[in-house]
Design a protein that fits this description.
This protein is α+β, with helices and mostly antiparallel strands. The protein has eight helices and six strands. A three-stranded antiparallel beta sheet has the order 1-4-3, with helices on one face. Strands 2-6-5 form a three-stranded mixed beta sheet.
Length: 203
């Protein structure tokens, strides 16, 4: 990651991914597709470049099961439903520097007001009318979309949903745990993941 450019005295670098929104990103220009390292590409990526628009991201809620208790606070529920998961996003390099500018203007306030950087990033994108999401099902959660729910995973193997292009590992277990056969819970069996391993090892 490039340097975040934090002001003197502020040493919290957890939000370093925001440095991708610098006006000058190592002299690069044009459209970029950012992918976290801990995910598996399982189909062609061309469709991610075909959608018209400047910015696309995963809707974070699309990777998780419904959270009905969140509706106790409707305003917060609405905001969290809008948050993008920054594991996979497409953007125009240098066109969204307002995100980094807003953060650097007061990093302490940003980190106090938002739990993680993708919440802050989403709020800035929404305020500028640039928050758009990938079609649901292109990016799927291994735990929530591939592994059969509950005790069914003890007699059914994980499967890739139709239309999925990228498998992400939101929450637990992490990608390294999955490839080691660990489900993170006693009741979560990983099972056979030949299709996932083949996609990961594909040249």
């Amino acid at each position: 990651m490039p340097d975040l450019g934090l002001p003197p005295g502020h040493t919290d670098t957890r939000w370093r991914k925001l440095a991708l929104f610098r006006r000058d990103l190592a002299g690069l220009s044009g459209t970029a597709l950012f992918l976290d390292l801990d995910l598996v590409v399982v189909d062609r990526l061309e469709p991610f470049f075909d959608l018209p628009g400047e910015f696309f991201i995963i809707r974070d809620d699309d990777l998780f099961r419904p959270k009905p208790l969140r509706k106790i606070n409707p305003a917060r529920d609405t905001f969290l439903h809008s948050v993008g998961n920054s594991s996979v996003f497409r953007y125009e390099i240098g066109r969204h520097s307002y995100i980094l500018d807003a953060f650097l203007s007061d990093p302490a306030a940003a980190t106090e007001s938002y739990e993680i950087s993708q919440q802050f990033q989403s709020a800035q994108l929404a305020a500028h009318g640039n928050l758009h999401y990938w079609p649901r099902g292109w990016c799927v959660s291994f735990k929530n979309d591939c592994v059969p729910r509950g005790l069914r995973n003890w007699y059914r193997e994980p499967v890739l949903p139709d239309g999925a292009r990228i498998v992400v590992f939101a929450g637990e277990p992490k990608m390294a745990d999955v490839f080691a056969g660990h489900g993170g819970r006693w009741y979560r069996r990983i099972g056979k993941i030949d299709w996932l391993q083949k996609a990961w090892q594909r040249p």
